[in-house]
Amino acid sequence: MKPPIILARGKNTFLIERFEGKLHTHDGIINLDELKNKKFGDEIKTHLGVSYKILPYRAVDFFKHFKRSATPIMPKDIGAIIVYTGLSPDSLILDSGTGTGMVSAYLAYFNKYGEVVTVEKRKEFARIARENFKIAGLKNIHQIVGDVFFIADGFKKEFDLVVLDMKDDVKFIPKAYEILRYGGHLAVYNPYIEDTREVYHKMIKIGFRNVESFEIVRIDYEHKRVGTRPLTRIWHTGFLVIGRKI
Q1: Which residues of 217-228 are buried (b: 16+ CB within 10 A; e: fewer)?
Q2: Could you report the per-residue pLDDT of 109-143, keeping only the tens digit for each?
Q3: Of all residues in the chain, what percent are helix, strand and coil, respectively (each to 5)?
Q4: Distance (Å, whole) CA 21 – CA 216
Q5: pTM, entire model
Q6: 246, exposed or middle or buried, with CB in 10 Å at 0-12, 13-18, 19+?
Q7: In terms of Cα–Cα distance, which of 115, 170, 157 is closest to 138?
Q8: What are the C-alpha distances in Å from 229 to residues 76, 146, 222, 233?
Q9: How far apart are the C-alpha atoms of 54 and 38, rounded to whole Å?
Q10: Is residue 19 within 8 Å of 35, Cβ to Cβ?
């Protein structure tokens, strides 16, 4: 067993990058050196005797444990992009607006025989994303720091999927159409409905077909002895517009 790994107790989880030093938790202190003699499925105890389960670090852990810079797109929306664009595991993908790297990471994870090209013009955001990719062991991500409007002119290959989570996304739509291969998809994420409307009409005007504009709302439920009901919070995060070059 090698790092990174996850230590879990109930809903509390910790990402461990090195088997050395000490981890301070509300349940006590864990001597991380003890992990060198453990395997997945084993438990490790704090100095107060509280046990934590040892789990492998997987894609399900990305959203909770990636270091943050910008606010990331939620897993429910990333999942929609993957499903509605029919992502295949040998795709060439452009992700513009790397941010934390959440979208690129999930696309790369499910695109194991392909490549994700991700562009971020803010150097600090790119640095944090690079650290996340390294810890996650994702080697099929090619990261570029710069302005995608200039960088896109240098692309020599056509993309199967372009994902935009960036300012001035409407202005980039014509270029996205140009660099997509026939049958490829464009997916645009926006936190505001006014911008989403503008993206939708621009995509249709440029020539995209089967254009869909929607949001995905997550509602959590609580299950008690007296019955089941939705929790008061509703997980709305943003809007998606997805279209195809055909």
Answers
A1: eeeeeeeeeeee
A2: 999 999 999 999 999 999 999 999 999 999 999 99
A3: 30, 35, 35
A4: 42
A5: 0.92
A6: exposed
A7: 115
A8: 21, 47, 6, 12
A9: 8
A10: yes
How far, in Å, CA of 93 to CA of 162, rounded?
A: 6
Q: Which two tokens stand for residue 175?
A: 């270029």
Token reading at 147: 């302005």
pLDDT for 161-220, tens place per residue? Answer: 999 999 999 999 999 999 999 999 999 999 999 999 999 999 999 999 999 999 998 888
- Tokens read off for 161: 């999927």
- State which H helix or E strand residue 51 sits in: strand 51-56
**Cβ–Cβ under 8 Å, residues 106 and 76:** no
User: In the sheet where 12-16 sits, what is the strand order?
Assistant: 12-16, 5-9, 51-56, 43-45
Q: Quick one: which of 86, 160, 173, 174 has its CA closest to 116?
A: 160
Identity of the amino acid at 243: G
Distances (CA, A) of 84 to 48, 73, 154, 210: 48, 16, 28, 11
